[in-house]
Amino acid sequence: MITPIILAGGSGTRLWPVSRKSFPKQFANLLDGPSLFQRTVDRVMAPGFAEPTVITGEDYRFIAQKQMTEMQATCGALIVEPEGRNTAPAVLTAALVHKDTPDKVLLVVPSDHQITDDRTFRQVIAKAARVAQKGLIVTLGIKPDHPATGFGYLRVEGGNDDALMISQFAEKPDEDTATAMLEEGNWLWNSGMFLFRVDTALRAFEAHAPDLIGPTEAAMALGGEDLGFTRLNAEAYKRCSDISFDHAVMENLQQCAALPLTCGWSDLGSWQALKDIGEPNSQDTVTAGNATAIDCEGSLLKSENPDVKLVGLGLKNIMAVATDDGILIADRSESANVGQVVETLRAEGATQADGFKRCYRPWGYYETLSLGPRFQVKRIMVEPGAKLSLQSHVHRAEHWVVVSGSAKVTVNDDVKLLTENESTYIPLGAVHRLENPGKLPLHLIEVQSGCYLGEDDIIRYEDIYHRAEVA
Length: 471
Prior knowledge:
By secondary structure, the protein is α/β, with parallel strands linked by helices. It has twelve helices and 30 strands. The strands form seven sheets. It has a six-stranded antiparallel sheet with strand order 20-21-22-29-24-27, with no helix packed on it. The chain has a five-stranded mixed beta barrel with strand order 6-9-7-8-12.
């Protein structure tokens, strides 16, 4: 059995404004249907695969859990990184989790890539696992079909019938170099997917990245189980170097193997990549969502908001992407540089840099409908059986109006049940809680009033999601 290790902690800033730190691309609805994370989980829910180990960030643990529940999937472990330290510490953590089964083969896969041919993917994985059982670390190399400059490359030489041997790792090349690599014919794109035995990986870390072992072991030993998650200790884990598995281990190995893979793969790392997998019209323009193109050439138009109509007229080689609170307009040649937009917005203090109007929480979500001096109107959705923390506010009072579903409301010592079209008032300073005792989602409108309306004006007295301890 192959045990998948699904890495789901990235922030995906190059796909702003659809992907942001608070809800990155692996969980977003970039393509019609399931998220990339859900597609990744589904891809390894097949004969020959054990339950996956999922590694994600503190901000995404409940999102990952919810999306797995939606697809009726389970995992062997859901590990929470207190902060991202790149892929090497994550891979080492996965190997240490399974150290009691040294001959087990692990498959490390990112959760934000697109693969259209799952059958071929599984066939190549089975072949790669046989190579990994011989004690080699195996990476999957994508056969290039154009001189891409956004990927690392692997130079491969003749091996045996099972795999090619990697003779060189190359960083992202310029276009001329990428063209020469394509013509040379013995280069593959580095997909960031790996297979290895547990003991093989641990020996490789001991030989080439021993400084990561102590902090990672300490993070696991000082961490613990929490609401079905395996939480790593923050103080210990932050001592790990911020380094990729390629740089820490792979590039230092004397021998490592690669299997070529052709399976409709894309890392979806830029808006250009999204355009490449779309269905262009006769003028090589792709539209998605609530968007219309008129006499546009070589462009991508995408609107995420059904209430925001995006219309392009006479555009050439332009990317235009709209959400309900952000619009990106850029030349296609700048596709790889969209991350600079996020850096600029952060410097400006713009909330759109990292967050959306809709903010997801363990119990559901809220979104701001209107914000003005001394007032804010929010829409709140609480999942069936979920409850917010028992809390109070120093600077604001609140009115709640139930739109649909049922709400159990606690205000100081008063507990009551509200149904559709009923409301209640939460005075400033009152200790209160909102719960959904029903079997359907609870939707309500919250009207806040006061001199300060920030999300940090919360005093928590009890929280079933343990956020007070985290803070």
